[in-house]
Amino acid sequence: MANIVHPPAGFDGPGFFATSLDKAVGLARKHSVWPLPFATSCCGIEFMATMGSHYDIARFGAERPSFSPRQADLLMVMGTIAKKMGPIVRQVYEQMAEPKWVMAVGACASSGGIFDTYSVLQGIDKIIPVDVYVPGCPPRPEQILDGLMKIQELVENEPLNRRNTPEYKQLLASYGIE
C-alpha cells in the first residue's frame, strides 16, 4: 500500500509559492542595478578604477553605467558639489524613474569634505535623500563596492509598496520633491 502524504499546514493548493512576489522582484532588482555616475573630482577616478578589470563592478550586476537619468536607478554622486551644481544634481535625481537609490561617494559628497566654504554644498543630503554614504577621501574601490553591496541589500529587501507609503511621500516632501 502506498504512503499517503498530506500537504503541510498552510498549503493553499495550486496557488502556493515558495517565495513572495516582493522577494522575487527584490532578487531580480538586486542584480541589475544601473548606476548613473555623477563624478566631479578624484572620487570619479576611483569609480573608474572600480569599473576596471581589477575590481570589476560587473560582478555585482552594475556593469552598465547609464548616463541618462531615465534609464538609471542608482545615482552615484562622487566628489565636490558646488552650490551652483546643486540644482543640476536635483534635476538629475527628479528625472530618474522610481524606484531609485542614491549613494554619496566620498567625504565631499557626504559632508563637503575639507571644503567648508560658502561655495561648496555641505553634503548632497541637503538637496536629495541619500541611501548609502561611502566614506573616504577618496574612497578606495573596495569601499565603493561595499557601498554598492549595501545598496543591493536595500534593493533586495525593499517592499514593492514602500514608494507609495505616506512615510516615503513625507520624506520626499521634506526635500520639496513631489
Automatic annotation (TrEMBL):
InterPro entries hit by this protein: NADH_UbQ_OxRdtase-like_20kDa (IPR006137), NADH_UQ_OxRdtase_20Kd_su (IPR006138)
Query: Which of the seven top EC classes does this enzyme belong to?
Result: translocase
* Annotated positions binding [4Fe-4S] cluster: C42, C43, C108, C137
Residue stretches making up the NADH:ubiquinone oxidoreductase-like 20kDa subunit domain: 42-151
Q: Which BP terms from GO are recorded?
A: aerobic respiration; electron transport coupled proton transport
User: DNA-binding: present as a keyword of the record?
Assistant: no
Can you quote the record's cofactor note? Answer: Binds 1 [4Fe-4S] cluster.
Specify the domain of life of the species encoding this protein: Bacteria
Q: Which reaction does it catalyse?
A: a quinone + NADH + 5 H(+)(in) = a quinol + NAD(+) + 4 H(+)(out)
Specify whether DNA repair is a keyword of the entry.
no
First-listed, main subcellular location of the protein, grouped into a coarse class: membrane
Q: Which GO terms describe its cellular component?
A: plasma membrane; respiratory chain complex I
Question: In which compartments does the protein localize?
Answer: Cell membrane
Q: What's its EC?
A: 7.1.1.-
Keywords from UniProt, A to Z, are: 4Fe-4S, Cell membrane, Iron, Iron-sulfur, Membrane, Metal-binding, NAD, Quinone, Translocase, Transport
What Pfam families does this protein map onto? Oxidored_q6 (PF01058)
| Protein topology in the membrane | Peripheral membrane protein
Q: Name one GO molecular function term.
A: quinone binding
The Swiss-Prot or TrEMBL record lists the needed cofactor(s) as:
[4Fe-4S] cluster
Q: How does it assemble?
A: NDH-1 is composed of 14 different subunits. Subunits NuoB, C, D, E, F, and G constitute the peripheral sector of the complex.
Q: What does this protein do?
A: NDH-1 shuttles electrons from NADH, via FMN and iron-sulfur (Fe-S) centers, to quinones in the respiratory chain. The immediate electron acceptor for the enzyme in this species is believed to be a menaquinone. Couples the redox reaction to proton translocation (for every two electrons transferred, four hydrogen ions are translocated across the cytoplasmic membrane), and thus conserves the redox energy in a proton gradient.
Q: Which family does it belong to?
A: Belongs to the complex I 20 kDa subunit family.
This one is known as: NADH-quinone oxidoreductase subunit B
Name the gene that codes for it: nuoB
